[in-house]
């Protein structure tokens, strides 16, 4: 059990982070700054938890988070950079913003956090924890950008271990597929998860234990370690596994194209209906305008006639008066 620690935990509102939060909040004397962009569900989680909304994908966000933690705790004993998100689809989109957001959240933010944290520690002891990913060690189809963002983070932790000061422990988590909101965030259209799938509570327990024991890496799924050895020794096993994942992506692409076709069909139908309604409304308006114009012209002609009559009458009266004089 981790006790008497001041802790910053990002991505604390859901999934793995939320399960880690539950465990850390039970530790005697722990104080936790629990962070996500939306923190309504953890606002009143426990007396020793301060929920704080913060977007860690920006420099300003991370700077503000350190300021907040320093104001609350003074020293941060454990900084757990867990927040991250995926995207699942064949990589054929030219969406700069999506790539940018994924790298800022999954890679740049935790790297920048390291630099901020060693400065904050200033020689005192501390623990930096990262949630990397099994996909950060073995790429699978459909997750090209997510996978590369986690490979980069993995490369960073590997390099920085050779530079880091002795007062800093770095513990990295390598989950396989874990049943969290991750897969809902990854695409609005449902898809098949990679095999195997673990519960977030199982993953969180192993990570908290790993942090406590000073582990460098935590692989919560024994099968992943075993399969890495097996795939290294017998490459065809890896080919079979990756072919299964490729087949999942192919099925997803078919599903997505049906979904897109249906979406376009619906959009075309809605557009047609709207255009029909607009044409009808225009016709009705034109009819009304023509009718109003006709009525107005009639009234104007009548008024003109009356005025003419009145003018003639007045003229006659004037003539009469002149003759009378
Ligand atoms: N589930 C898996 O299969 C799996 C496998 C390997 C690795 N991982 C990694 O595990 C970590 C946790 O993911 P999860 O599976 O627990 O997914 P999750 O249930 O979707 O949780 C993600 C958490 O991160 C927060 N978050 C996302 N973007 C953020 C931002 N810009 N600023 C602050 N907080 C942010 C989310 O809250 P808000 O949206 O409110 O900000 C949420 O609390 C991620 O790094 C993920 O890449 C997951």
> What percent of the residues sit in helical stretches (DSSP H or I)?
55-70%
The description of the largest β-sheet is:
7 strands, parallel
| CATH class descriptor name | Alpha Beta
Q: Provide the domain count.
A: 1
Instruction: Spell out the CATH superfamily.
Output: NAD(P)-binding Rossmann-like Domain
Output the strand order for the largest sheet. 3-2-1-4-5-6-9
CATH domain topology: Rossmann fold
The helix count comes to 8
Computed CA radius of gyration, to the nearest angstrom: 35 Å
Quote the average pLDDT: 95
Dominant shape: elongated
Order of helices and strands: EHEEHEHEHEEHEHEHH
Question: Spans with pLDDT under 50 lasting ≥5 residues?
Answer: none
CATH architecture: 3-Layer(aba) Sandwich
Total number of beta strands: 9
Which small-molecule ligands are present, each listed once? NADP nicotinamide-adenine-dinucleotide phosphate
Note the beta-strand portion.
5-15%
End-to-end distance, in Å? 125 Å
